[in-house]
From TrEMBL:
Protein name per Swiss-Prot or TrEMBL: NAD(P)-binding protein
UniProt keywords, alphabetically: NADP
GO molecular function annotation: oxidoreductase activity
Keyword NADP listed: yes
PANTHER family xrefs: SHORT CHAIN DEHYDROGENASE_REDUCTASE FAMILY OXIDOREDUCTASE (JCVI), SHORT-CHAIN DEHYDROGENASE/REDUCTASE
InterPro entries in alphabetical order: Fungal_SecMetab_SDRs (IPR051468), NAD(P)-bd_dom_sf (IPR036291), Sc_DH/Rdtase_CS (IPR020904), SDR_fam (IPR002347)
GO cellular component, one term: cytoplasm
Family: Belongs to the short-chain dehydrogenases/reductases (SDR) family.
Amino acid sequence: MTSSTTYLITGANRGIGLGLTAALLLRANTTVIATIRTLTTSTSDLTTLPIAPNSRLVIIPFTLSLSSPSAVSESLLSTLAENKITKIDTLILNAGLGSSFFPTLQTTLASLLEHFESNTLLPIAFFQTLYPLLSTPSKLILISSSLGSIKDMEGATPTLAYGVSKAGANYFVRKVHFEHAGVVALAVHPGWVKTANGQNFADSIGVAEPPMTLEQSVNGVLAQIDGATKETTSGSFVSFDGSTVEW
Ligand code: NDP
């Protein structure tokens, strides 16, 4: 029997997460665990995706709880066990928030906290919870953003909450690269893509729409995921086209 490659993708119900899920399900012998925010999240787009022979889709809710983090972690692990998931080869930390784009003086602490929860703490919580299931070697892929680059900061664009939360997540990814020899850890900028998140940023800077299609982004991101190894891109920050993004 051919063994199955298992991916877990967060934020899989829409946007880039849905696109990655759709593309991976077209590969044979592939299990995709698609996590969604809550049981009430609409999964109709997910449940109608075509699935290749011997592949399967498992949909699981996971909401970060700062008050009882171990309870949600245990719930995720027990749901994976119920679905006979015993290992994860690639963890794609895609879920993220880009809901309000303001300059420093107009950015509220509430907005900073909200972006930190979704963009920094949620990826770390997933890695901590799922580490015991990660295969060796495994891949940890953060869908990051060039707006989190400190060196290549794009002038005075109004990105404090989003940018600082992505920069924090980038730090985590590079830290995992050095801490875990068996984990290929990579931050990937998916391009500026026509999704709700991408459109929010376009609106904030007065641009009609993001330049890239979902398909262009998904193809590029998957090429970076497939090609990542400990010796090559692990511990780095790359764009969907393989070019380096400065931290
Ligand atoms: P969308 O707004 O289309 O989708 C965001 C996804 O993240 C949704 O599934 C959403 O769930 C989920 N999510 C957000 N916060 C949480 C949370 N706290 N808990 C659980 N799920 C959460 O955006 P994109 O597809 O564009 O974004 C995907 C990733 O790509 C993000 O990390 C984003 O920062 C990054 N990115 C996107 C760019 C773009 O141009 N589109 C550019 C650079 C980076 P729900 O439906 O429940 O809200």
